[in-house]
Write a structure and sequence with these properties.
CATH superfamily: tt1808, chain A
Radius of gyration: 16 Å
Distance between the termini: 28 Å
Number of domains: 1
Structural class: alpha+beta
Strand order of the largest sheet: 4-7-9-10-11-12
Number of helices: 7
Number of strands: 12
Shape: globular
Helix content: 25-40%
Length: 202
């Protein structure tokens, strides 16, 4: 990650500054340029969106997956997750910034959020996990297809790991999935996909 500008700014200034091209987030008042996703990273995020979309259609759920979405946590933080599943009714009822700015401010509007790990794995496992939990987002996936995360998060020896954090009594409970283990989701309980299929984007 590289810092784009030096002075601290708030979330509204960040949105006003944010260009159409490139991926940027606001971390503690600092604009951060996110690494350009690799082909594999993009393929995994796309495959997840497809699988989630098929479940939404099959079960006729009132959810949708936006192409872009910024989740605001405070005046100093805003993240653009790789994949996010939103509750259409709650977004329409409770998110006044959505229509014009694609901004989400409430955790209950988000059914599931996904980060595909790249070189900035500490953000996904530490900072973002804490912030997603504090906002009350019910399910958070970390897709670490290269096994880059710290051993305290994914074990030793390191290997590709899909970590699913599910909110229980205000705190995340964590389950790890590897190889041919079927992924278990509260949001999509009938999802029949293994960790390896997600890592391989199919």
């Amino acid at each position: 990650m590289t810092q784009a500008i030096s002075k601290l700014i708030n979330f509204d200034e960040f949105l006003e500054w944010k260009p159409e091209n490139g991926r940027y987030e606001l971390h503690n008042g600092v604009i951060v340029e996110m690494p350009n996703p690799t082909g594999k990273h993009s393929a995994i995020a796309g495959f997840q969106s497809l699988e989630f979309g098929l479940e939404i259609r099959r079960l006729q759920l009132s959810y949708f997956i936006p192409k872009e979405c910024t989740i605001k946590f405070s005046d100093n933080f805003g993240y653009d997750p790789d994949v996010v599943v939103l509750d259409k009714q709650l977004v329409e009822a409770n998110e006044p910034r959505w229509e014009k700015e694609s901004v989400i401010t409430r955790g209950d509007s988000v059914k599931l959020v996904v980060e595909v790990v790249s070189t900035n794995w500490r953000d996904d496992y530490a900072h973002k996990m804490i912030d997603y939990e504090a906002l009350g987002i019910g399910e958070y996936w970390i897709v670490d297809y290269l096994g880059l995360g710290g051993s305290r998060y994914i074990g030793s020896p390191k290997q590709p790991t899909l970590s699913i954090y599910q909110l229980v009594d205000g705190e995340y409970q964590i389950k790890l999935f590897r190889e041919n283990e079927r992924v278990e989701s509260v949001v999509f309980p009938e999802l029949n996909v293994t960790a390896k299929q997600f890592f391989n984007a199919g």
